[in-house]
TrEMBL record:
One Pfam family in the UniProt entry: DPBB_1
Ranges where the RlpA-like protein double-psi beta-barrel domain occurs: 72-159
Gene name per UniProt: rlpA
Name of protein: Probable endolytic peptidoglycan transglycosylase RlpA
Known EC number: 4.2.2.-
Gene3D superfamilies in the cross-refs: RlpA-like domain
Recorded GO MF terms: lytic endotransglycosylase activity
Family matches, as PANTHER family: ENDOLYTIC PEPTIDOGLYCAN TRANSGLYCOSYLASE RLPA
GO biological process: cell wall organization; peptidoglycan metabolic process
Protein function: Lytic transglycosylase with a strong preference for naked glycan strands that lack stem peptides.
Coiled coil: none
Keywords (A to Z) from UniProt: Cell wall biogenesis/degradation, Lipoprotein, Lyase, Signal
Secretion signal, residue range per the UniProt entry: 1-23
Length: 165
């Protein structure tokens, strides 16, 4: 029923537009007129309303971002941990976007932003760590390298934000 009403509405608009000039922002844009006797067509004005189209954002899909910590020290897992079990029971894969954190529950999605270049990545907490006191988060190698300014460095300063639904 709704589709047929929409189709009828669109057909009516197309019929009116083909016989009139389309008015957008109070300016007339000429449309090619057909050769029909002028006394058989009623003149009508067509008003086209502009509708704002909202694109899906990361926050719409994953929830609201909440600041956790600025100036946090991030490092990445060594290659020797690839294939081993994490604290959550999942196998560690250095090619997936995962992280180790001391406090966040497993499955928490975090947005990690490199403060040196502004690049960010979204990771999921699957492990506990890091076990170095000066570090706040361990990233998988792919996540670290994606946002690293210097690919040879092993540590960077990041901002940690958590997604809350």
């Amino acid at each position: 029923m709704r589709k047929s009403i929409t189709a009828l509405f669109l057909f009516t608009i197309v019929a009116l537009v083909s016989s009139q000039s389309l008015i957008i922002n109070n300016q007339k844009t000429p449309i090619q007129k057909t050769s029909v006797a002028k006394d058989t067509i009623k003149k009508a004005k067509v008003l086209v309303l502009q509708q704002e189209i909202k694109k899906d954002s990361v926050e719409d899909k994953m929830g609201q971002l909440v600041m956790y910590k600025k100036d946090a020290h991030a490092s990445y897992y060594a290659d020797k941990f690839h294939g081993r079990r994490t604290a959550s029971g999942a196998l560690f894969d250095m090619h997936k976007y995962t992280a180790a954190h001391k406090k966040f529950p497993f499955g928490t999605k975090l947005k990690i932003t490199n403060q040196a270049n502004g690049q960010s990545v979204i990771v999921e907490v699957t492990d506990r760590g890091p076990f170095v006191k000066s570090r706040d988060i361990d990233l998988s190698k792919i996540a670290f390298m994606e946002i690293a300014k210097n690919k040879g460095a092993g540590v960077m300063i990041v901002t940690i934000e958590a997604f809350k639904k």
